[in-house]
TrEMBL record:
Gene: Baiap3
Region of interest: Disordered: 20-47, 85-123, 223-248
Name of this protein: BAI1-associated protein 3 isoform X1
Matching InterPro entries: C2_dom, C2_domain_sf, MUN_dom, Munc13_1, Munc13_dom-2, UNC-13_domain
Subcellular location: Cytoplasm; Late endosome; Membrane; Recycling endosome
GO molecular-function terms, A-Z: SNARE binding
GO cellular component: late endosome membrane; plasma membrane; presynapse; recycling endosome membrane; secretory vesicle; trans-Golgi network membrane
Keywords in alphabetical order: Cytoplasm, Endosome, Exocytosis
MHD1 domain: residues covered: 658-779
Domain (C2) ranges: 171-330, 1005-1132
Domain MHD2: 883-991
Membrane-topology annotation of the record: Peripheral membrane protein
Species whose genome carries this gene: Heterocephalus glaber
Amino acid sequence: MSTLLEIKSSVLRQVQVCPSFRRKTEPEPGSTSADLPEPATGAWKPGDGMEFFAHMRLILKKEEGRQGLPCPEPCLYNHRVAAGQLQDKPPPPARPSPQHLSQVLLRSSSPAPAEPVDSNRGLRALTQEEVEMLYEEALYTVLHRAGTMGPDQVDDEEILLGYIQQVFGTSPEEHIEAIERVKKAKAPTYTLKVSVMRAKNLLAKDPNGFSDPYCMLGILPGSGTPREQSGQKEKRFSFRKGSKHSSPLPAKCIQVTEVKSSTLNPVWKEHFLFEIEDVSTDQLHLDIWDHDDDVSLAEACRKLNEVIGLKGMSRYFKQIVKSARANGTPGPTEDHTDDFLGCLNIPVREVPVAGTDRWFKLEPRSSASRVQGDCHLVLKLITTQRDTVMSQRGRSGFLSYLLLLSRIMQFEHRAEESNSSSWHGEFSAPGSTVLCLHGAQSNLSPLQLAVLHWQVSSRHHQTCTLDYGYLLGLLEDMQAHWEEAASLPQEQEEILADSFSAFSEYGLKLLRQLRDYFPATNSTAVYRLELLLKCLDKLQFFQPSFEMCPFETELNMDIAAALKRGNREWYDRLLNTKSPREQPGPQRLTGLVELADIIYEDLQACYGIYASLFHGILKVDFFTLTFWQLEHLLAEEAWVLTEELSPKMTLQVASGLIELYLTLADTQRFWSCIPGRDGRSLALAGIHTPFLPAVKIWLQVLRDQVKWRLQGAVDVDTLEPVDTSSKHSSSAATASLCFSHIQELWVRLAWPDPAQAQELGTQLSQDMCEAALFYSELLRKKVDTQPGAVGEAVSEPLCVVLNNVELVRRASGQALRGLAWPEGAGGVEAMLPRTLLSCTQALEEDLQREAHTVTAHLTSKMVADIRKYVQHISLSPDSIQNDEAVAPLMKYLDEKLALLNASLVKENLGRVLEALWELLLRAILRALGANSDVSADFYGRFHFTLEALVSFFHAEGQGLPLESLKDGSYKRLEEELRLHKCSTRECIEQFYLDKLKQRALEQNRFGRLSIRCYYEAAEQRLTVEVLHAADLLPLDTNGLSDPFVIVELGPPHLFPLVRSQRTQVKSRTLHPVYDELFHFSSVSAEACRRRGACVLFTVMDHDWLSTNDFAGEAALGLSGVSGISRPQVGGGMRAGQPITLHLRRPRAQVRSTLRMLEGRTNKEAQEFVKKLKELEKSMEADP
């Protein structure tokens, strides 16, 4: 046995990993994955259907990009990365989802299309005289530069002068002459702007833990002595205690801030101007003191001009305070000296050219001083009284900087030849240095500089495209300074407003041609659009700040109007190109199909790319605006054309109308999938009505073309697998594709009218069922004509045909379930329309039947071999071991199943295994029936064979399930083998045991019998009381019966002294009442507990002139009778409740035991069989 079990089929263990049919789109045999050439769509004529389905595939393939509806992206991070932007920024948080439409649309990161430029939209051209004045201004700025250059600035005078020469394009001689002329001009007056902002972490000098700090500051000349003060200068000093300066204090004065009481972190934000005589040697000196009395600081500052001849600035300041206080009113204490908190000494030459805004650490005045804290200063070195023509003519520094910046930008940007639209405003080091020098010397504030750079760059952008990121940065910079600084002078504000108006006008012009300049397929262009929209959004920030608004209406309204106008212009251009109205209807139809496809793709781009940008940045619902406008225009054109073509309906026109309708239906579905969409009805609503005749014509043609295509595919099919990974042939792949295309077409149609959809869907489903059955018939005829190999037990063509049927069964079933019309949109069988469900079920039954027919045909070639090997087992002598006798059969099965596994898919292999299992069981039953009076070893060998086959076909769970193996014929065979091994008495006991196990299939069919039964142990007597019967079968011609009941105990060998008894006959009734008591003596309790011991009740119909008729029987097991299973309580003879038994007739299992006994020759078996046969004569045929 152990040797045999090692022969378990390795093939069956591989069943689970057998590839099943996968739902995948396969190319038709002989076709390639390359795009198919577009076939002609004239009149579809009879043929092989290839041209028709090639055209159908083109229609469906067009919709592959329309599957799914993504969520709009909140940002375009991916697009920026593709455009080479945002390299250092972290990616946004991942979104679940899906496939996003933007990933499909953004296919290119090539440069964006060139935007329109107009030289007239820049700043006005300068006259020659203005150019010369600007040239002089630039030279003067460089030659009189002061301060420290930054690390990124150029400090070489020759380089800066040479750069200016290049910018203005002067000759060397003119350049040298101009430099000499500027050098002779008077030098400007230098002034140091000092803003004392705040201090922090000062020492606490007062008992309350705080101080009352104030600052004194002035210019320390290079000689170390204080400046002489003239009377005229002193008159300009205007200071009141406790108030701010009405204007900056005059230069050459020691100036003082307010006192900030009780704080260690004072905030002053006071501004001062100091004239500088020698930039290279002068120093700014600042002291911070703690104010300790009520002496007027203004008076102290006035007195300081009377104190002269002191050495050392710190000592000078302190002595001034002491001297001033000596003439003041003393306080309540004798010591009124202010406490020193720290000082600063800053050489003027160390002030950066662009100024500085930083914290300075406070210094002690001597090594004995103890100070701490920092002071925040803003320092800037500016010039006044510039000896240039431009200054003499009253041109402000603001205007001269604007002209100089424009000149330098034109020069720098022109030098950037390749991809000029990506220029970010990076000036060269000399250029940025010259601009920095001029801006600082002209005392331009950060806000003014930001305004000037925006003004020049935005104008220059309209003549030579710049990067929108650079322009957005300028706006953000201007916004930051706008919020901090005071408003601009009116003239400068008007200049800024004009620049805003010009830029917004330029931006609206671009948005009108959105699709041309910012195509959704170009990630670079889309990123530029995002930045442009952000620039326009920034303009709205400044709108409330202007006294004179630069925009006549809200910018959002202007943008929406520009988009609408652009949509209409784009649509009109497309219509005139694709479907001009002067063309005939059929020609216009072709163009309108193309137009509808383009509009759908554009709506996808609007939703997937543009919508999030416009809504997220400008709060403009661009998608809704565009959808309603284009949908209305397209619907209007479609209604007109369908009305014109309805009287001219030809096959060619119907084909074009189908293609047009599919796109229109997709457009409607697109809108229905938009979350939060407007509830208004579309202009396309009801558009399906004029397309109905075309759809009916198309479906009629489709029905015929499918059959022609299947016929052609089967004709060329060689019934060989299409490749090594597939087990079906080429025709099955073609049929599967045909059904798939039909389902896709129906889903795409999505016919909205329920009644019409039911009519179309019913017809289409019937046509598909006919096509599937037509294909199976073609296969059967094909395989019948194939010559089979002599002696071939496994037919390769039959295996392929079986796989083909299975593939088509699944493909057609899936396609049919996909044909649900509106009321069955759930896609579940229980939800399918009744007509479609019945059609699907009928086709499933037909194809399953076809598969079983092919399976039977395939396994029929193995019947002779299986019988031969089973006969070998039955004829093997007893001297041979069981596993040796069974080995040839197992080897044969293993070889054949290896071939079947290689040729069949999993489902079909399971069918073949089930068929082979049934063949084996029948062959063994046949062998058992052909042999009688054989030894017990004979049946033992077949029992061994059955166990081995179960193990072989189960294959450790990889083959057939045990529930399937041990059902049906297996149970019958196992029972016969078991009974053959039993003795005669064991078989008789089994006969009664089967009766006890038998259940009534229909409880009320043969009626019921009510009895009471109990055992009296003292007398060893069993008492049976027959009470009544009900609902018996009418066995007489009058519709009644004459029933009586036979009561007997069994098996007979357990109760040899007991005879059967019977009730009286109750005439003409189906509900007899007996109330008769029967006693069975000499019945031991031990016998009643034996296996199969029972009381058998047989109900008969009494006939006077013929044999009594059998009406039914019932058995009651004695082991559960009162007195046997439990002691009897009390002395009542009628203890226990009545028992209702349902009558029945003997089933096959009971009769199989009887047949087993018939084959035995001993007396006991023959007598038992004889008795039962007499009873069987009175029984009717088993229902």
